[in-house]
UniProtKB/TrEMBL annotation:
Coarse class of the protein's main subcellular location: cytoplasm
Organism the protein comes from: Marinicella sediminis
Catalytic reaction equation(s): tRNA(His) + L-histidine + ATP = L-histidyl-tRNA(His) + AMP + diphosphate + H(+)
Transmembrane segments: none
Protein name from the UniProt record: Histidine--tRNA ligase
Keyword Ligase applies: yes
Compartments in which it is found: Cytoplasm
CDD domains tied to this protein: HisRS-like_core, HisRS_anticodon
Keywords tagged on the record: Aminoacyl-tRNA synthetase, ATP-binding, Cytoplasm, Ligase, Nucleotide-binding, Protein biosynthesis
Family to which this protein belongs: Belongs to the class-II aminoacyl-tRNA synthetase family.
InterPro entries (alphabetical): aa-tRNA-synth_II (IPR006195), aa-tRNA-synth_II/BPL/LPL (IPR045864), Anticodon-bd (IPR004154), Anticodon-bd_dom_sf (IPR036621), His-tRNA-ligase (IPR015807), HisRS-like_core (IPR041715), HisRS/HisZ (IPR004516), HisRS_anticodon (IPR033656)
EC number(s) recorded for this UniProt protein: 6.1.1.21
Length: 425
């Protein structure tokens, strides 16, 4: 026997009993983004590694150690996208989307990171990302947060909280960086190796450290709030004002910095306690510096990425949704009826009624066993073709759930009008 090959570590399969959750989630998200006037984009899985180096920065976990990187046949280093923001900026620049028009864009696709797999952390995972260009905010930043709240409502997700912070302008951030370095330099002995290695390259990341030993030194660190300029303060205050007016609750978390270098002004995370340690289901913020860092004209930008896997897990673990009926109609036939008759009838019905879910019994079997399958499918009606029906050019239709309807003999047109009513129910 040949050796059975299993899937790679950190990858997962989606089986039919769960795929409907993905489909429904994706359909809901697509509908809502369209309702808010956002347009979908699609970009390749593979990009030049240099794109992520210039956009995400060298000193982030993602670029330092998480990318699936290899050389193509020409010796060029390529990477499987670990996130979508860099590719979106590249796409927007390369296709001339940023010349005059503002853009409200979104994507939904798998990302790849070579991380240590655990609950809520996979090596292939899907993100719905939203990226907006050409608006200085904070109105559009507020819209993004309200849009995500609307998504949670529509998806039936409760127990999520919003944490918010401001990193101010690049100048504020640079000033803060200096005082932060001074603070940590004064307590060097309290830092771990990772923090020391980031002290000069990306000191804000130290605030993000998950090492409990660092908690006291982080707690005593100066706060970004005390280093915001008047303009940065006003930007953040107006954002909070809009959120307050719309009744969206948030907590200001002064230690929320987000890992990446390019963030400015507001940054945020939506967190749930229902998923254990990997509770962040959506994260983002403003990144006014990125377009310029990728070789474009300075363009204000803001966005977020939602972890679709974690949302699916949440919905399944907590049974937030229940599967809907899949089959409307089940078509069965007497053993003596050629399969061509049944198959042709099904094709004729399908041509007339888009959206009807119909299953045709395959192979030959007794009526009893076919009815069993029809019942199991949950169908409302069974269409039965027997010898009489074939001779009279009609069809027996039996209601499997509605006793009053019983069984009726219908012509093709009558059958179509009966089944047409099913799609809208
Ligand atoms: P973390 O701190 O959990 O590693 P991150 O800062 O790397 O998160 P982002 O790059 O901001 O995450 O990605 C946005 C969202 O994508 C996360 O909030 C999470 O929901 C999801 N996500 C990120 N990495 C993974 C992964 N390996 N598996 C599943 N979902 C992920
Ligand atoms: Mg990560």
């Amino acid at each position: 026997m040949s050796k059975k090959i299993n899937r790679l570590r950190g990858m997962y399969d989606v089986t039919p009993d769960q795929v409907w959750v993905w489909q429904k989630l994706e359909a809901t998200v697509t509908r809502i983004l369209s309702e808010y006037g956002y347009q979908e984009i699609r970009f390749p899985i593979l990009e030049e590694t240099a794109l992520f180096h210039s956009a995400i920065g060298e000193v982030t976990d993602v670029v330092e150690k998480e990318m699936f990187t290899f050389e193509n046949r020409k010796g060029v280093s390529v990477s499987m996208r670990p996130e979508g923001t860099a590719s979106t900026v590249r796409l927007a620049l390369q296709n001339g989307l940023l010349f005059n028009d503002p853009q409200k864009l979104w994507y939904n696709c798998p990302m790849f990171r070579y991380e240590k797999p655990q609950k809520g952390r996979n090596r292939q995972f899907s993100q719905v990302g939203v990226e907006v260009f050409g608006f200085e905010g904070p109105d559009v930043d507020a819209e993004l947060l309200l849009l995500t709240r609307h998504m949670w409502d529509q998806l039936g997700i409760k127990n999520v909280r919003l944490e918010l912070n401001s990193l101010g302008t690049p100048a504020c951030r640079d000033a803060y960086r200096e005082v932060l370095i001074k603070h940590f330099e004064a307590h060097l002995e309290l830092l771990d190796e990772e923090a020391r290695s980031r002290l000069y390259s990306n000191p804000l990341r130290i605030l993000d450290s998950k090492n409990p030993a660092l908690k006291p030194v982080i707690e005593q660190a100066p706060m970004i709030q005390d280093h915001l300029s008047v303009d940065a303060r006003a930007h953040f205050a107006e954002l909070c004002e809009i959120l307050d007016a719309c009744g969206l609750d948030y907590q200001i978390n002064p230690k929320l910095v987000r890992g990446l270098d390019y963030y400015t002004h507001n940054v945020f995370e939506w967190i749930t306690d229902d998923l254990g340690a990997q509770g962040t289901i959506c994260a983002g913020g403003r990144y006014d510096r990125l377009v310029e860092m990728q070789g474009g004209k300075a363009t204000p930008a803001t966005g977020f990425a939602m972890g679709v896997d974690r949302l699916v897990e949440l919905i399944i673990d907590h049974e937030l949704w229940h599967p809907e009926q899949q089959t409307d109609v089940y078509l069965i036939r007497d053993k003596s009826i050629p399969s061509a008759v049944a198959i042709k009838l099904a094709e004729d019905i399908r041509a007339r009624i888009p959206g009807l879910n119909m299953m045709v019994n395959m192979g030959k079997a007794s009526f009893k066993s076919q009815f069993k399958k029809a019942d199991k499918s949950g169908a409302r009606f069974a269409i039965i073709i027997g010898e009489n029906e074939l001779a009279n050019n009609e069809y027996a239709v039996k209601a499997l759930q509605d006793r009053e309807f019983g069984q009726q003999q219908l012509s093709f047109d009558e059958l179509v009008s009966l089944l047409s009513t099913l799609q809208n129910q």
